[in-house]
Amino acid sequence: MKQAFPNYQLKSGWNALLPDRQAQPALQGKQVADVVVIGAGFTGLACARRWQELAPNARVVVIDASEIGEGNPGRNSGFLLEIALAEDANPANMQRMLTCNSLT
C-alpha cells in the first residue's frame, strides 16, 4: 500500500537541533475525545492549544501521521513579497492592493 503522506529521509532542520524524542505507540482500540485536531503543524497545535484555553475540561487530541513539526511547516520558512514586485498587476489591481495594505 502506498503511503498517503511524505516519508522524509532526514529530520527537519528544527527537529534536528533537538534531542531525540521517544517514539509514541500507535493508537489502539476506541479513543474518546471532544475535539480531534488532525495535523501537528503550527496551525494544528495552535488550534488545539487555543481550544484547550477556551474549554479547559475538553478532551483535545492531536493526531499526526509523523512527528510534531516534521511536515511542511517544519520545512518551509515561508516568505513575503513586497507589492512593488507584482509587476504583472495592472494599475487598477495595484491601486486595490495598495488600498488593502494601507493603514488609513
TrEMBL record:
UniProt xrefs under Gene3D superfamilies: FAD/NAD(P)-binding domain
Pfam families linked: DAO
Organism domain of life: Bacteria
Name of this protein: FAD-binding oxidoreductase
Residues covered by the FAD dependent oxidoreductase domain: 34-81
Keywords associated with the record: Oxidoreductase
GO molecular function: oxidoreductase activity
Alphabetical list of InterPro entries matching this protein: FAD-dep_OxRdtase (IPR006076), FAD/NAD-bd_sf (IPR036188)
Signal peptide: none
